[in-house]
Specification:
Length: 484
């Protein structure tokens, strides 16, 4: 990357005009943090010269560039047509006998949030001279924060060799199949019905385990099976997780399956979604025993014969998806995470405020909309800060050393007893966009504990706390700086 920067510094900038008002497009800011990237298309070679079109995936800016192979090594490209001065894009290419390397650096401004934010990103990629599909260049942000966004792994097996070919005639293997029916009168005993099966997709190797959903009076409803696989425990599948719906008809002993999965093994620029349906009468071998609680009823326990069963599709259809979309990160449905909250709406939520033996204690968490399963962290008063009367070092609670976001990892606290004013000068990190390179933030909060405080002394220990033990409040974080 450093070589590209040096080469590009000597090259002329290619200014690119936007097609449409992308700076105010919905999601410009969120997409700029999540997928700062470009698609290179329509590459044409004419001797030593070439041209191509480029599209910014975060902003939808598009332009056509032309590059003259005047010298050996990297050559700058220029836009065809007018270009705005406030959205600079630099591009250069390196053409060899077998491939073309592209380098892109672009700055743009998003205005879809409460305040405008300017981004700068760069990236590079290489493609064979014969490559005709759109080429993805994933960028790294250098401003407003320095991160390389984490992309998704994608659905199980989406890039497995043969995924697309085998999906032309979908099939599965059913295994570990068991059916249990224990009727009861509902008074002396509760009826129980269960159906379990593991479904393995032969196109991608994906396995889903299916079991009954909720039913009436606690009896499992085998006609609505709940199925889950790898995505149940994975947090980085992306926008397109595999979905499986299944049912079992106990009267006809028939298993039905609907499943949707994804493939891009032939070309990541041309991902597809496959949805398929299948049914199969299940040959069961059953044993019966009298119910121990209801002599007039019989319990039934069944397994399949043979133990594994092939299942073939009855119908399926394929839908094309956007280029490279299988590994795009999943937008949060809960709102802003740590990084965007820290930039656009930084606030702490305070709770459990108390003063024990004259020392201040409270719990705090960043008010991100997307908190996951994180909870507030306790903050205790530590050693006094030299030269600052009424200020103390923080002692962060037991889990504070885990490097989790939404908590201060270092701070000092101030307390004006007579005024009820609490100060917090904190440092914290956000890892939601780039787990390997957290963004570091600092900020200052001054707030008032606006709740009656009552005190008591028990066994010689004084304790003052908010009259309402559930009292919580939020306070803004001022003078926020990042990347420090």
């Amino acid at each position: 990357m450093a070589v590209c920067h040096l080469l590009l510094a000597a090259a002329a900038a290619a200014l690119v005009s936007a097609q449409g008002p992308s700076a105010t497009a919905a999601g410009c800011t969120a997409k700029s943090f999540a997928i700062p990237s470009w698609l290179i298309q329509d590459v044409k070679h004419a001797g030593a010269d070439m041209s191509f079109s480029i599209a910014n995936r975060a902003t939808n800016y598009t332009a056509t560039l032309a590059c003259q192979g005047k010298t050996a090594g990297w050559n700058a490209c220029v836009v065809q047509g007018a270009a705005p001065e406030d959205e600079p894009l630099q591009a250069s290419v390196l053409v060899s006998e077998t491939s073309t390397a592209f380098f892109v650096n672009q700055t743009w401004t998003c205005k879809d949030r409460e305040k405008a934010l300017t981004f700068t990103a760069d990236g590079n990629a290489t493609a064979a001279l014969t490559y005709t599909s759109p080429l993805l260049i994933r960028g790294s942000l250098t401003s407003p924060v320095a991160i390389t966004p984490t992309y998704a792994d994608g659905a199980t097996g989406h890039g497995s060799p043969g995924c697309s070919a085998r999906s032309a005639k979908p099939s599965w293997v059913l295994s570990s199949l068991q059916y249990t029916d224990e009727p009861a009168d509902g008074v002396t005993a509760t009826p129980f019905r269960n159906f379990n099966v593991i479904v393995t997709n032969q196109a991608n190797g994906y396995q889903a385990s299916c079991m009954p959903g909720g039913g009436f009076a606690g009896v499992g409803d085998v006609s609505r099976l709940t199925c889950a696989g790898y995505e149940f425990q994975a947090f980085n599948v992306g926008r397109y997780p595999i979905s499986t719906e299944a049912s079992y008809d106990a009267v006809t002993s028939t298993f039905s399956l609907n499943q949707t999965w994804f493939c891009d093994d032939v070309d990541a620029a041309k991902p597809v979604q496959i949805t398929s349906h299948a049914t199969l009468p299940i040959p069961l071998t059953c044993t019966t025993t009298p119910s121990p609680t209801s002599p007039n009823l019989t319990n039934k326990y069944c397994t399949s014969t043979p133990s594994t069963l092939p299942l073939s599709s009855l119908s399926s259809f394929t839908t094309p998806l956007s280029a490279y979309s299988l590994t795009d990160p999943l937008p949060s449905s809960r709102g802003d995470g740590c990084t965007l909250t820290s930039i656009f709406s930084p606030h702490w939520q305070f709770s459990d405020f108390e003063i024990v033996q004259g020392e201040v204690r409270f719990e705090v968490i960043l008010t991100a909309q997307d908190r996951g399963f994180q909870y507030p962290i306790p903050i205790y008063q530590g050693e006094g800060v030299k030269g600052r009367e009424g200020w103390w070092e923080c002692v962060v609670g037991a889990d504070g050393g885990n490097g989790l976001p939404l908590w201060p990892n270092k701070c000092v606290i101030g307390w004006e007893k007579g005024k009820g004013v609490l100060g917090l000068e904190a440092e914290w990190e956000c890892r939601d966009l780039d787990g390997g390179h957290p963004v570091k933030f600092t900020g200052v909060t001054t707030t008032t504990v606006d709740s009656p405080i009552t005190c008591e002394t028990v066994d010689g220990e004084s304790r003052c706390a908010t009259e309402d033990p559930g009292y919580t409040w939020t306070a803004g974080i001022d003078n926020v700086k990042w990347g420090v």
